[in-house]
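yo, Flagellar export chaperone FlgN is done. seq:
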Amino acid sequence: MSLARLLSDQNSRLGKLKRLLEEELQLLTPSQIDGDALTRVAQQKRSLLDEVERMEVLRRQVQTRLGYADGLEGARAAAEEAGCLAAWEACLSATERTARLNDLVGEVLEMRTLHNQKMLAFIRQIAEKTLYDPSGRASRQSGRISTSA
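structure:
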């Protein structure tokens, strides 16, 4: 497979990954999350990330086989000599955009997790102040406010 074809395929996969990340972000923004849809997107994203990684390994192997150094400089030189520098730069740019979007999704997930933890702690705190005695009957609460602290 030519380097130009590898880059084109990789750029296509990165575009799909970007769309999945955008969908995931949309699924994380409402107060009520659609867990099934989020699971579906996560599975598709995992599969696509595996494909992107597989293609990147193949691209690096081709780069090495052609005698270019490892890393960005070798990749750039290989793309330039193969006449597909624009495709390489587009792929690199798409990778950077996708990484930033993935970071944003991670931050949203972290915020949601922290929010959920706070809500669970609040619910536990309320549950500990039960209004029922061990027999299940409502305990009598005095109408007075305790002034001892």
